[in-house]
## 1
Amino acid sequence: MSDRARGRWTLAAAILGSAMAILDGTVVTVALPVIQQRLSTSLAGAQWVVESYLLFLSGLLLVGGALGDRFGRKRVFAAGAGLFGLASGVCGGAPSIAVLVAARAVQGVGAALLVPGSLALITAVFPASERGRAIGTWSGASALAAALGPVAGGFLVDRFSWRAVFFLNLPIAATVIAIAVLRMPEDHPRKASSLDAPGAVAAIFALGGLVFALIEASRAAPGSARVVVPAAIAAAAGVAFGFVEARSAHPMLPLGLFRSRAFAAVNVVTLFLYAALNAAVFFLPFNLIQSHGYSPTEAGAAILPVVLLVALLSRWAGRLGERIGPKIPLMAGPALAGAGFAIYPRTGGPPSAYFRTCLPPIALLGLGMAIAVAPLTTAVMSLEPERLAGVVSGINNSISRIGGMLAIAAFGIVVAAGSGGAPGRPPSASDAGLRAIAVGSAGLAFAAAAVAGFLMPGGRNLGRRG
């Protein structure tokens, strides 16, 4: 087989692998209200369906990249696809919420092996002269998967069952593995990469304890052991994580990077902005489906403008950031997103009123995200020398997922407090709960804009270190 043919097969596998992980994140969100009803679980149970996946994905993402370096990217990529597919089958057949949450955690481990390898394989297989086009194709396909995800998830739930959302991954995973085994070129470890296993374990316990405490705080009495104990575990694990990273020769999170004010600012903006976005997108389908009569397909289509605007305008926003520097886009984008969140409660009303009620805040949110996302990525990759590009990108990717994970957990408390115990429907579905989410998400988005304004240097030069 020619090198060109191997490259095409590798690109196809990378696109399918990353699309599987992206689709899973978006389609599950639309299916959650139905899962909550069919498995007779609480809001906390629905939260854990998302949180268990994000916990292991964000906690092990950097480790997954290091495993690819040590054991071979093709091998780790295929193993991640296999584990993801196996866990998806268990998710689809889960008889209870406990089994579903556990299988979602295994999916997160598989995704942590799969996601870093997709782009790394393209970089390794394609020569420099063709790499840009290949990465562009991969990025476009990923954006398309993100755009189709909510609608596809709603369609599967409406026409078949929520279980079809997970069974969809089985043929994709099988195809990825077949291509990896039969068509992708052999690769060998580039280096004996050191694995920061103690750091990864400490990070998972710190994040997991914090998420557990936040979710339980929405339904447990103040001072309950169900809140205090996991919070104490999270605090101890967080201290241990800092100790390990400060003394490790090969830390998964080099703490010295945060001495750069620009690096710290960019990652705080990422944390706040993606926390706001994920919280709003998580809770909106509950409200639309359970309070306003939307079908899952209609609820998925309702948030489609966000993804479409990001996909259509990111190239323009990237060029704008290159021309004037990322500071202004990172102030304007989150501010516009915050304005969208501020009028989020207008999303109430039947599907027939979508263009009057739901579209304006959703479009404003999408416009703000479109202005911010590409300059944010450019800013991250321009902060450090090229030799640290993978580490810096991985850290920022993890922080965006951690922001969403923590926000979904914390905003459960906000929903419970803001719902006023709405009769006849769960707190997550009430208009009062959505108003509480809107206030919190707007605050986070405006805080992201303020951080960019006060802490990031102006102009195109962010102070890359040599």
## 2
Amino acid sequence: MNYRKIAGCLLFCCLCLISVQYSWTADFTNPPRIDEFLGEQGMTRAGRDFPILAVVSNPSEEAVEFRLELELPDGVKIVSSAVDSVSLAAGEKTTLRWTVTADRPLYEEIVLKIIVEDNLVAVGRLPVRFLEPREISGGGQIPEPVRKSDSRILVGIHNCPLWSGGNFNMWSQLKKHPERTPALGFYAQENPEVADWETKWAVEHGVDFFIYCWYRDGQGCPVKQNHGSAIHEALFNSRFQNDIKFTIMWENQVKGKAGVSDEADLMETLFPWWMENYFKRDNYLKVDNKPVLFIYRPEFLINDLGSDENVRQAMNKMREACKKEGFDGMYILGEYRGTDQNHLQMMKNLGLDYTFAYCWPVSNSPSPAEAIEAQKQKILETDSIGIIPQVLTVSQAWSGWKDEGSIWKLPPDEFETLLRWAKAYIEKMPSEQLGSRMLILDNWNEWGEGHYLLPYTEYGFGYLDAIRNVFSDLPKEHVDLIPEDVGMGPYDTIYRNWQEEQRR
């Protein structure tokens, strides 16, 4: 028997089989795909049902049959299931649903696989969080917030007001990042109950005020706003509006549309509007009996008003106008996230009281330790230059709207380390400076850019607990409620209804 010839034939047959198997995969250029794989809410509790859904589609020009495999972590089981196999015509898509539950608190990943003729063609991954079990009270009302008693350091957080009910595409990043799903779901920010929950969660973890981005719509005309519903519809109608302070950051970066046309526009139109609608409110942030105003691009006012000196005069006129209304002046802070001495000198020339950073950019997708060190160095360098004093900002993360550039994140423990450093640094600043009494956190809810502290799937209440550990005198042991604990919510019905329409 010619064993060499037999072995050669067997090898040829094996190669043929391998070639057939992989040539099919290579030729199958448009396999079924998973367009969405999401939970119906940000988180739930152990023992409760958690609905999830997947939108799968067939982009090919031929009908296809495939089976679905749902891999569950230990402790999670299926309560109700979608079909195990699917047939889709060319170009067709369908929505599939499951309900799962967990027998203990956990943060794990559910994996969805699409199998065609024993070939794995698509994989979806869904992080899920189950909190400690708790009975639903059914009370239908949010308990009053419990505040800290020590506010020697005022803790503020930038609040991004871009999440109104009709602004559907703003949530598109979360389809790529389901771990970012807020505890409130894809909420409509104009709902006063959304502000109720935000206030409760913030103040119970040591936060004193929100800094809302404020967008003017047109200049040289009566004041109109973009994205104002978080303040005017939600906060101003919130049960807890007096439990937290608010201030605004004037987002004047759109030249010719969001600033002022001249000094008269500032002093006769915009400033009086702020005074009547914001500064005179009891819940607007005042320090030393001075309203606090943040300006995003103070350097753009040079073009609006004609010169550095004109801007300085306008800043002083705003302070004097505040005094005429019974205040002791006004604190005006300008945004800058760098250490260029010429820029810092320009900010001083404009008559600003302090510099602050909306966020700290950190390059090269650093590790948490590197991101912390980079922020420290920016803060230290700004102080060492000594041109204009600063109010400290510390940043939690960054990704950019399209995951562009440097991407990084501090887990809650590392974020707490940075907070402790910031607190110690603030306590050593000159007592007459606002920076010795205030810290700014970045960011409450910038889901698209990838920096957020509001409770969400990946870390739950971890970031807020870090703030509470450092800046609150409330007991460390506490219970953080979510809406379903008291029979409330959901707050994303508008978005979910729109999403269902898009799936049809």
